[in-house]
Amino acid sequence: MQDGVMREWLESSHLAGGNAAYVEELFEAYLDDPTAVSDEWRQMFDALPRDGHTLDTKHSQIREQFREFAKNKLKASNATAAAPDLKQVRVLQLINAYRFRGHQHANLDPLGLWKQETVPDLALDFHELSKDDLDREFNVGSLAVGKDTMKLRDIHDALEKIYCGSIGAEYMHIVSTEEKRWIQQRLEGVLGRPSFDKAQKQRIFNELVAADGLEKYLGSKFPGAKRFSLEGGDSLVPLLKSLISRSGEQGAKEVVIGMAHRGRLNVLVNVLGKKPQDLFDEFAGKHAANKGSGDVKYHMGFSSDFATPNGNVHLALAFNPSHLEIVNPVVMGSVRARMDRLQDSTGSKVLPITIHGDAAIAGQGVVQETFNMSKTRAYQVGGSIRIVINNQVGFTTSKREDARSTQYCTDIAKMVQAPIFHVNADDPEAVVFVTQLALDYRNTFKRDVMIDLVCYRRHGHNEADEPSATQPLMYSKVKKHPVPREIYAKRLQEENLLDEEQAKQRVSDYRDALDKGEVVVEEYRPMKAHSVDWSPYIGNDWDVAYDHKVDAKRLRELGEKICQYPESHKLQSRVAKVYQERLKMAKGDKPMDWGFAETLAYATLVTQGTHIRLTGQDSGRGTFFHRHAVLHNQKDASTYMPLNHLSDDQEQIEIYDSVLSEAAVVAFEYGYATAEPKSLVMWEAQFGDFANGAQVVIDQFLSSGEQKWGRLCGLTMLLPHGYEGQGPEHSSARLERFLQLSADHNWSVCVPTTPGQVFHMIRRQQLRPVRRPLIVMTPKSLLRHPMAVSEMDELADSGFQNAIGEIDSLDPKKVKRVVFCSGKVYYDLLSARREREQEDVALVRIEQLYPFPTEEVAEIMKDYQHVKDFVWCQEEPQNQGAWYSSQHHFWAAIPAGAQLSYRGRQASAAPAVGYLSEHNQQQKQLVDEALTIE
């Protein structure tokens, strides 16, 4: 603001002289928070000249200028601010202080163990207000209590009820003034406590009866058995049922829930409608005689329909291993798939709910990754409801200084400006109110929101623990503390809404219902058929027939179309050259390379009606500059995807450069693939070893989800792998780990060596009616290797070859050694053998290491039954790669009496050496040893 303008403004009538200090105080409050002043003052400050800048960008400068002018005017007039005006400012500051820090004085802990620091900002005297001011009338500013003025006594009482009762609201960290005002209106308008009618209160009580009743029933029927009891956090049941019902009222068709162990059995029975008898059978060790390893009962998922005032809502509880928070991005992926299927771009029809533990949400990094994804193009789901069952102890760690470095376990949510509502779980009406508020916020602003359900756990980490050994003070209180059902029953009795006999009868009725073993959820409805049908993919073997052929003319047409883009879309020179070369490949003037064959595979699928989703940290162009499916205009940075402009009736391919994450991103794509069998879902690592960051997802979901939970998943992982002298970190995709986990035909592990092979492999993954993961060791140098090329005919006529025999015209009778290999090393062996003009060593490529192609290799071996010397050659160190995990397959494939030996790098702790010269020497040596017959 210019000095002259400021002076003129200050000297105007009602702002001059003794009022300047008052105005300065208002302006200070306005700069800190525009909602802290009345609408009249806010409009005046909004109208101030900015000198080309916004107030936000020059806060400190404007503040100092204002303060200096105000001081000068005060000196000139020798006046002081009028007392009532200054007091008014102090009252507005008090209101603002409660909005910022009232949660720190809220009554949140049912056990009364939290020792919150005293917040001086919330005291009257901090704001130079006293008891003498209590009966004075003040303007309430933007305090949404339905009055313009109130006595200070009433203002203070309202603030205590709103911000320091059973709800502690944190929302002033949100940048959006609109969102903050929305929350203020909802909280302040009811003084932090809504009014529920008799029927609603009775329903809440019945849900607490159910939550408590199931735990007591299980405790008496199966004493000492692990169940990860909900006791202490019983309000989760009315919370979830209210959330689901209200979401249905507002148009939701599906709800996907992810949670770890605590309270899971209770949610299964009392929310989703699992039959108690089925749960009891699991406790007793009974199970269906079906295939698979199964899993413990508190990892199991469930699906059902739930009746709401606006129709049934489909519920899905995700299966979850013991890695707690890893299920959250899985839920988000499942939700995104359902949104895409329902053509729901905003998330209005599908609601994600994730339930966390207080120790886990603060302690596990995948939480941050998932929050970071929440507003990105590839991973947004219109906001999620995140609930923390905050029992104030993780395993045996309860001291805050040991469990986290922040005041609250939920502080991580502030990174995405999610509002956080802490609520005392012993006040179920406050819990339900906060739940409704959270859902309405999510549906209004399409953002994440957090509910911190502050409670306790009545037993140890599991029912066999003795918690008082490590938490003596906490559990001395827990033992004396009444359960939420008892607390709420007493409250309803005081309101004459329930008598003691009725309360006892409800408990008895619920226990009788459990004895019958049938569904105890009133809203439960038998699940109807939904929009996705998995039946075509169930029970099929790997070798099930499918139509892999593509008309050669059609291939050429598509090949030319994927090379077309608008003339106005100017390409970078190297990219333009790639497309010029691809056009030659499409016309048959040049053999096709890897990038062209891969893109052509996508083109055939989308024009056949397959939706494709490909994500990764550099997937648009490809880490090694080979794909260029997304073209960037060099003039205006706009993008164009030829694959989405092939025909009017085609499906779409989505290709996103992902956030810099592996664990959450791979979990998201797994979740997507488990919810949508008709889409080809692919994740590409920037380098194969980046999959290390997603090892939990690979171990506990991808490799074993079908065996444990019967969950089919067709996710494809593209992992660049190959020894190019780039050092230990970017050579190996850890092939050995995937092969070690290979069993029960749980997935396929492929190492394709030609463009034609990758074309057929991608198509096979989608067209074959099998939905199991595909792990691909993709190449780096082979993307442009002059020998790694294919002709158009190879794409049209043949399918994927699991094993490829000798391609040179060697006389099989002269062969003395057969070398098995996979991947890039094949071309090193082939080049060296041709250079030597050697005819006594045959090369056999294993393109699919798992399931091992026994029949195909046996067919190749018919020419070599006389050979006694067989070699497995690999680039990886001996303790890595395929040797240790797969040699039993190689032994079984060779003739009786023959010998099998290893040729490759020596065993090593690191995947590769870090020096190029040493790498080259090792590579030459292993090739020489593989080809040299002693």
Describe the structure.
There is one protein chain. This protein is 39% helix and 13% strand. By secondary structure, the protein is of the alpha/beta class. It folds into five domains: 3-81, no CATH class; 86-188, Helix Hairpins (Orthogonal Bundle), CATH 1.10.287.1150; 198-525, Thiamin diphosphate (ThDP)-binding fold, Pyr/PP domains (Rossmann fold, 3-Layer(aba) Sandwich), CATH 3.40.50.970; 552-797, Rossmann fold, CATH 3.40.50; 803-931, Multifunctional 2-oxoglutarate metabolism enzyme, C-terminal domain (Rossmann fold, 3-Layer(aba) Sandwich), CATH 3.40.50.11610. The strands form five sheets. The chain has a nine-stranded mixed beta sheet. A hairpin with a 6-residue loop joins strand 13 (631-632) and strand 14. Helix 2 runs parallel beside helix 5 (83-101). Residues 1-14, 50-59 and 73-84 have low confidence and may be disordered. Its cofactor is thiamine diphosphate. E1 component of the 2-oxoglutarate dehydrogenase (OGDH) complex which catalyzes the decarboxylation of 2-oxoglutarate, the first step in the conversion of 2-oxoglutarate to succinyl-CoA and CO(2). GO terms for molecular function: oxoglutarate dehydrogenase (succinyl-transferring) activity; thiamine pyrophosphate binding.
